[in-house]
Amino acid sequence: MELELSETLQPVIDGLSENYPDKVIEVYQSSGDTFVRIEVDANIEICKYLKEEHHFIYLADILGADRFTSEERFEVIYNLVSLRDRQRLFVKVWLEEENPEVESLTSLWTSANWLERQTHDMFGVNFVNHPDLRRIYMPEDFEYYPLRKEFPLLGIPGSIELPSSTPDTE
Amino acid sequence: MDTKDLKNKVNPKFFKKHQESLYQALEDKHTTVEVLDSEDPLNTKMVLNMGPQHPATHGVLRLVLQLNGELIEKAKLDIGYLHRGVEKIAENKTYQEFMPYTDRMDYLSPYSNNVAFCTAVEKIANVEVPERAHYIRMIGCELARISSHLLWLGTMVQDAGAVSFFLWTFREREKIYDIFDNIGGHRFTISHSRIGGVANDLTSDAIAMIKDFVDNFPKELEDYHNLLDRNRIFFDRNEGVGVLKTEDALDYGATGPTLRGAGYAYDIRDFAPYCRYDEVEFEIPTRLEGDNLARYYVRMEEMQESIRILRQCLDKLPKGPVRADNAKQAYPSKDEVYYSMEGMIHDFMMTDTGICPPEGSESYHAIEAPKGELGFFIQSNGTGHPWRLGIRSPSFANLQVLENILDGEMVADTVIMIGGVDPVMGDSDK
Hints:
The complex is a heterodimer. By secondary structure, chain A is an alpha/beta fold. Chain A has a domain at 9-103: NADH:ubiquinone oxidoreductase Nqo5 subunit (Beta Polymerase, domain 2, 2-Layer Sandwich), CATH 3.30.460.80. Helices cover 21% and strands 27% of the residues of chain A. The longest helix of chain A has 12 residues, at 43-54. Chain A is elongated. Chain B has 2 domains: 6-78, no CATH class; 86-324 and 355-429, Cytochrome-c3 Hydrogenase, chain B (Orthogonal Bundle). In chain B, strand 2 (62-68) and strand 3 form a beta hairpin. Chain B is globular. In chain B, the strands form 3 sheets. A 3-stranded antiparallel beta sheet of chain B has the order 1-2-3. Chains A and B meet through strand 3 and helix 3 of A and helix 2, helix 3, helix 10, strand 6 and strand 7 of B.
């Protein structure tokens, strides 16, 4: 598919494919948003390049997704914003089902901390070198990852210990 | 109290592992606050657990603070007490069915959430929305912004010690609720926006009420300014509290008035205009100080700008339909449903299957909610249910900022700083 890039996004994509020809897997557009899929091991390198060279200084979100395929099942999407050029760029990596692991972006943005914890909590993605990788919504005692497709909508009975309804009587 | 090895000293009654790891995280937190004496001969160190049932935490926010006297050495936030899993629910609902759930996320500005969700679905499914619907949505969004900021103002000033103020701002909110009641039939969770437009047109009664509100509210706003702008107590409580530098604000991911109060004019209404915000004139209030007072000014001026936008919307409000006239994309009007066979079938199909965005498409759309950038990321597999619906909630981003700026502040300012970033737990916990 032909890409219809805006004037400000064109140099970004050109720069990426020039500097990281082996690391950028595909560039595509969907509903007006531009997505760049890259190799898992290059996420820090490329995000750093985008931040320093193309002014993508604001990390709006990190999202996980379960593609439910046998290979490269999980997806982590970085939502980067260039405040100067008024552009949004989505950088994504695909992770293996067994032990999904990706380098943490906390060294580039402090805000990646909670966003990565959220993806870890919901999908079980491990972020390497994250300073405080705890669950964020679910308690630590919970063993499942709720947004994975195999997790039932109604939850798993007994998977979480509920507080006693009469706490004063031991 | 010795603050070492905390996790073995507390004996939690439930979620044992969770509590232990929270205290461990507090112990491990790297902080830049200088602590003079590690011996602590005066026994001034303690760990304070605040919330989740604390009335000043605006919901169910839990903070664990390590104190040295009155100084917060380091702080950890624990959220998730209101986690309902709306992203999981969304994957099992049609798009229109999910819309009322967005009301319950940021329950102080339901209209903005409806619009955020509907515009996101319209973007991925290529739905054209009639002009008039855009303007009605803008009116609703701006009213929601005023209502949300009024609640923030009331509670924040109450956190600073003034109780009667809360009642005055709630009197104004009551008027907005009455308007919403007239617009959509609900006072609180309105669910007025629909994919492809809005549920129904504004009645002349509603327009008269909005006009009345727009005429009278600036006077009230002036009264608030008169009361607070020279108030010594209010100033002392807010000035220089919770200072956030511009570069830090971007690094921590601050959004909405918190970011604009720290000096960066990032507003989605201007950054990527949705609805018809490119056709109205408004300023983006920005302050450089980054403290709580700056956030106060930003929100107060935002309310003024909202009134300005409302005036322009009322002037420009075009005539025409309020919902897309395409049975594959939007609900038919009730007139059609009750009096024609096709209308009935279309209504049934919309409820049963709903709108189906193209297979494999994905998109992100954000609006400027009162608290900041509220975005919905949708991945579609071609059916009427989203494959993945990710929500980027502003309160979540701002609470992370709070965790970073609490270190080194006084414990008495905690409450007012929570009020300053204005979190809504339903929003941040999803």
